[in-house]
């Protein structure tokens, strides 16, 4: 019997095979609270954390802190709703839903399934492009840091990010051959450690700057019109900052896929809620520290990324190490976001062409970094093409802050708020026009308005970034 290794439903013969299967006939899940928390932290403490000082500079102490905490509360609240939807109709004993689209299909159905798929997979693809950009920026920063250390902080140090994007893409081509999300635990744990490392270094350097007394000017309302920005810049950058904060809490996009890695006992929804609370609370503490201490250090002139935009120059070896941690973290984070999309495409192809050897047959092989594993030709070709394409797009659009804000704005409302709330209402049978129903729908409406404003600000920011990009300036000449 041919076994498709990347398909968890493949069944081996013998009694041992039966024991290795879950209640749905798929490969036994082994995920725990620890691995789920690692996946969440890898997804959440990402490149967005380093832009929070800039976000607070646009919004100010009051609005910035309130918005940061509000996003954390909303994200955790809706993630608990989503966790209860993994099984249906009962959240503990019901039938499993293997991905976000499957959950929406079960509870809402109709065109909302396609809308969910569009929102989720556009977001996943966008995040992988964003992570490719950020990883290359971090690697470039290492080269620049060494150059500034040798030649002085005002030296003209140019390092191209294209070779680093290509190198990042090559690593992702190799790691993309991991068959599915279930095999990512080791990568997520390493990535989570890296994320804590560079976030801690950033916080430590900011604290040292504040302690030295060389701090920037801060305001309760952030940047000052007429001094730091124009009136229109204040408005649009504030909206873009909200998008950056939204991007920092983007893990609900893959929450169901993470939950599908958990063992069935204790109940998956309870473990997922604990993991969500641990992930959101831990990252929020880091976010507040990074955002607030970073803003205190740099003031209204806070850079978009205070490690790669050289808010700090020394000690250069520590800056180098922090940027290396960012790149290593993003190697794992890329896979956390890419694997659900890989699985979606491959599952649909398996269903459409079940007899195709190209799509279904697997071969034993040894792959660098991964060791001995099974290789599927379709998986090899398709995933390689995907990585090449996202790397190419990243080379065309190397605009960090604006892309972060846009991705956050586009993904936050539908995936973090609307669908979880709508499915909770359907599952809990919340009575229409009851106080709870009205409160939930008010939450949805307010978050929609916030997302629209954040998207508008990010689009304006992206347009300005394109206009100021040097290759495009040269074309105009």
Automatic annotation (TrEMBL):
Transmembrane intervals: 36-55, 61-78, 121-142, 162-179, 186-211, 277-297, 317-337, 380-400, 406-426, 438-463
Gene Ontology CC annotation, any one: plasma membrane
GO annotation terms (biological process): amino acid transport
Keyword Cell membrane among record annotations: yes
The UniProt record lists the keyword Membrane: yes
Keyword set, alphabetical order: Amino-acid transport, Cell membrane, Membrane, Symport, Transmembrane, Transmembrane helix, Transport
The name this protein goes by in its record: Amino acid transporter transmembrane domain
